[in-house]
Every structure is written in C-alpha cells, then in structure tokens.
Request: fold
Amino acid sequence: MDLGEALIVLMRWAHALAAIVWLGGGAYATLILGPRLREAADEGEAGAVVARVGAAAGREFGRWVNAAIVVFIVSGVLLTFDRLAGRGATAEYGIVLVLKIGLALWMFGIAQGLGRRRKRRPAAGRAAAVRQFLGSPRLLLWLGAITVLLAAILKAIYEATLGG
Reply:
C-alpha cells in the first residue's frame, strides 16, 4: 500500500467514525435522552437540574457534531475526488453522489439550526409546524440513515462498474 492508498483508507475510516458519532449520538439524544429529560421535567424532578443537564448535554453533543461535520467535509471531498478520478464513476454514480451530498448539506443545516432553535420560542401555525419538521432531530436521523444507504448504493454502483 502506497501513501495515497493509506490516505484514502484513513479518510474512509474517519468518514465512518464521523457517521457513527453523528447517527449513534443523534439517535441516543433524540430517542432516549431527550424524551427522558422531558419526562423528568414534566414529573417535577428538580426541573432546574434537568434543564441544566439537558443544556449541557446539548452543548457537548453539539461540539461533537461540529467536529463530525468538519471530518465529513474534509474526508468527503478527498473521497469524492478519489472516486471521480476512477473508472467506476458513471453518470448513475454522479447522480447518487449529488443526492448524497445534497442530503448531507441539509443535515448540516439542520444540525446548525438545532442549537439556535432551542434559544427561540416556538412559532405557531401550519407553516411553522412544517418548518419545525423540516429542521427536526428525527428528520435528521432519517436523513442520516438515507445517506448511509446512498453510500452503500454508491459502493455497489462503483464496484459493479469496475467488475462489469
């Protein structure tokens, strides 16, 4: 393995670790921690403490998410150039790649908006509900899962092109 191949392996590893942090941490925060903290606050279990724990956990996870975004961008750019320079990059591959990048950018926007949204009062009305859903942590998880699926599809397209 030469230095270039080692760099690509390192970038794939970093990209996968960022996905694990993003999706694993997001799933835990959204599906387990958040509901439990809201439940504890509703039950009156030292509301101020629950609020502080939730805010601290959100800030800390936000730092991890921001680091993951940097890793995704750096590794994603390098991995994209590597794949597009190869024989397996077809028009079909490019279309799926553009879709994956678009979803990733939407996810980055949602992640950045979540911290700001906590500081504002929620708006009312149908349009506000749609905006809230389009920037929700649950949608972020679904988009992440779809992005992982698109990565698997990209790998299959690339390998099929090289093998066929």
